[in-house]
UniProtKB/TrEMBL annotation:
It comes from Desulfonema magnum. PANTHER family: DIAMINOPIMELATE DECARBOXYLASE, GROUP IV DECARBOXYLASE. PROSITE patterns: ODR_DC_2_1 (PS00878). The active site is at C352. This is Diaminopimelate decarboxylase family protein.
Length: 411
């Protein structure tokens, strides 16, 4: 992890009371820095819709709003949240394989930018609901590409999938939409995976979708208004993982878009990406107080007050095939100095299940004491709201968003 010491210094600037047993801290300055990094490599006409399921904290939504981001939502609850936080409905996309009548009604009533259709049946349903509400709804087809993309952490396309419409059924879906009185076809959407660290793999999805949209545009003689390339930009969680090569991605995007032909083909098209994790994951940490340090048959265990019910991803139960240790430090807030030693531990949570294991055989170079805090980095995405918070009915972690101060730049 590149900026681990810097993040540690940001945490130490906070007044963490010893009364707190577990908490999440999200640093806006780090979110802003991720956003600026991403913006700097995107062609200028590209827009960013933040996929709020990664972290739907309202202060984060409104912070990203403030910097011009739209939002990608997947339920009417999420839609209501982003509207409440002031997101422009013209910058909201909505996707998900199981949209209910309530979801669709909320989308139609709020005149959102685009609703992704994910099955032919859904097309009829959206048309009916838009008709009842006497409105016309913008819809994009979420494509499940024929092609199988490699280099993806978590795949959501290129194989039999509940997400999107199979590429070979898209002409049928297109026909259906064009015959629907209350629907307006805008273009295409693809989100084929998550936690992608290979710039070329991401580039191949951009290339695929642009070629596909162009082929449809040429065949049917209309202008594609909207192309949404999805999210999935990954971050390095484990030792030896390398960050996404943004420079490489920039070069690929430039090659695809910086041509006269591109401008001629898509003069008025809106280009969207909808990253979640990339913007917020490394901007958040999860802290939990050490309750016990014990030994069993020669093995040392650190037991923290929190556990997987607070941070399921860090405990390896959200999409990982093999549980690996996140980056972890020991922090001490009581003013006493830590000494350098070296010892190896397993770190476990307080739940009565062997699944509640945060780290295995992790080497800690500080002397560790009861009352110190375990700090889990990269906890800003798919943490709090992606965890089974009520499992075993322990207290919830506190959540605190640390405001960005004007002119505060991340080093
Ligand atoms: C989850 C999701 C995203 C965000 O994924 P990340 O891997 O966090 O970037 C974007 N779009 C859709 C449709 C999603 O379901």
């Amino acid at each position: 992890m590149e900026n681990r010491d810097y993040i540690k210094s940001l945490i130490y600037q906070q007044n963490i009371s010893q009364d707190i047993s577990s908490c999440y801290l999200y640093f806006e300055a780090l979110i802003r820095s991720n956003l600026l990094k991403l913006k700097s490599i995107l062609p200028e006409q590209f827009e960013i819709f933040y996929a709020i399921k990664a972290n739907p904290h309202k202060e984060i939504i409104s912070f990203l709003n403030h910097f011009g981001c739209g939002a990608d939502v997947a339920s009417y609850g999420e839609l209501e949240t982003v509207i409440r936080e002031g997101t422009d409905p013209g910058k909201i996309s909505f996707a998900g394989p199981g949209k209910t009548d309530e979801d669709i009604k909320a989308a139609v009533r709020n005149n959102i930018c685009s609703l992704s259709v994910e099955s032919p049946e859904e097309i009829e349903k959206i048309n009916d609901i838009a008709g009842q509400l006497r409105k016309k709804q913008n819809v994009a087809i979420r494509v499940n590409p024929q092609k199988n993309f490699s280099g993806y952490g978590m795949k959501m396309g290129g194989y039999p999938s509940p997400f999107g419409i199979d590429e070979d059924k898209c002409p049928y879906a297109l026909k259906k939409i064009s015959e629907s009185e209350h629907l307006e076809f805008t273009g295409f959407h693809a989100h084929v995976g998550s936690q992608i660290l290979d710039a070329d793999a991401i580039g191949s999805v951009f290339r695929y979708l642009l070629e596909y949209a162009l082929a449809v545009q040429n065949q049917y003689h209309f202008e594609i208004q909207y192309i949404n390339f999805g999210g999935g930009f990954g971050i390095p969680y484990y030792e030896k993982q390398k960050p996404l090569d943004l420079k490489r991605l920039q070069d690929i995007l430039k090659e695809l878009t910086d041509t006269d032909e591109f401008l001629k083909n898509f003069p008025k098209t809106r280009f969207i990406i909808e990253p979640g994790r990339f913007l917020v994951a490394d901007a958040g940490v999860y802290l939990s107080k050490i309750l016990y340090i014990k030994e069993s048959r020669g093995k040392k265990f650190i037991v923290i007050e929190g556990g997987m019910h607070h941070n399921l991803s860090a405990f390896g139960h959200l999409g990982q095939v093999i549980r690996r240790n996140y980056h972890i430090d020991v922090l001490r807030f009581d003013g006493q100095v830590k000494e350098t030693t070296s010892d190896t531990f397993d770190i476990v949570g307080s739940l009565c299940t062997p699944l509640d294991k945060l780290a295995e055989h992790i080497e800690l170079t500080d002397d560790v004491r009861i009352g110190d805090y375990i700090c889990v980095y990269n906890s800003g995405a798919y943490g709090y709201t992606a965890s089974p918070l009520f499992f075993l009915n322990h207290p919830l972690p506190k959540v605190n968003v640390i405001k960005w101060k004007k002119d505060q730049d991340v080093i």
